[in-house]
Amino acid sequence: MSTENTPPQEPDVPGKPKPKPQPSQPPARPEPEPAEAPEPPGQPGPAVPQETGRQRLAAGLWPPRLSRAQLIVALLLFVLGLGLAIQVRSNSDSSAPLRGARQEDLVRILDELDGRTQRLEDEKQRLDDQRKELQSSSNQAEEARRQTVEKERQLGILAGTVAAQGPGITLRITDTKGQVRSDQLLDTLQELRAAGAEAIQINGVRVVAGSYFSDEGGGVGIDGKKITQPYEFKVIGKPQDLEPALNIPGGVVQTMEKEQATVAVTRSAKIVVDALRAAKQPDYARSSSP
């Protein structure tokens, strides 16, 4: 056995204390790495990216932070704006037919409106004169009776129970294609009434305030009576107002011509409206005068 690395052991001597074993040397610790020296003041650190104004604005606006009250106000403003847009659109659509009208057509329309205003003024003046006559007449009973007879005659003309004659026009609509419908004839009637027509007869049928139109096979029905083309209107009124009312841009004549119908308007110093309607006795209404 080899003893090169084994230290010699001292012999045990009685009474001599044994030497204490020496502790083994601890392993060497690794030296700590030196800490980095702090940067001297004044030296700039690493660059931090800065937000632009546009980015801060976008971050503030989105996502939106709206309260319930703000949402209600926004909804009301949207509804209000939509209503205004629809109103403006409807107004622009209603004025579209006149936008491309010629100057003479516009002058004619203004003259027609002036004529309607004048007729209303004349009616008002006539009623005022009647009131004054009743108040100043020495024989008020006789004056009242005379005015009653005159009023009955006027109401008979409007009700269609009395024949009438006077200046006016004859309107003839020839519809060989069968395109004219009852609603178009009704529009023609309304246009004539607005222009001051006082008595109207269509193909032998007296037209009054309660008349109605309907489509019938191959023709048009007025108050249940069928009529066929050509449709002939006999109209009593002021010809200078009636004829221009039919020829305004987008009016009766242009509408009928779009349906490939032929329209002829003739003025006359004497138009006779002799188709009569039977006076209808009311079932429930009674006079309230004593």
Offer a few descriptive terms:
290 residues, alpha+beta, five-stranded antiparallel sheet, three-stranded antiparallel sheet, 42% helix, elongated
User: What is the terminal-to-terminal distance?
Assistant: 164 Å
**What form results from the Cα inertia axes?**
elongated
Tell how many strands the DSSP assignment holds.
8
Unreliable residue stretches = none
Q: Report the helical percentage.
A: 40-55%
The share of residues in extended strands comes to 15-25%
**Class by helix and strand content?**
alpha+beta
SSE topology string: HHHHHEHEEEEEEHHE
Summed over residues and divided by their number, the pLDDT gives a mean of 79
Q: How many DSSP helices?
A: 8
Q: Main β-sheet, in a few words?
A: 5 strands, antiparallel
Strand order of the largest sheet: 3-2-7-1-8
Q: C-alpha Rg, in Å?
A: 53 Å
Question: Short summary of the structure?
Answer:
By secondary structure, the chain is an alpha+beta fold.
